[in-house]
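ok so I'm stuck.
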Amino acid sequence: MQIIKSKLEELIKELPEKVEVEDVMYRIYMLQKLRWVKRYSRRANIFP
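replied:
not stuck anymore, here's the structure
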């Protein structure tokens, strides 16, 4: 899955000044998963 550059910029702006690489990777992972769930739920008509 691809994440748009603007979403990454937003994500980085929300992070504190001192952050671990693992925290950034986890947030990217969660963003991908949330996008997948949203897309899947629309296809399956789970949520309108």
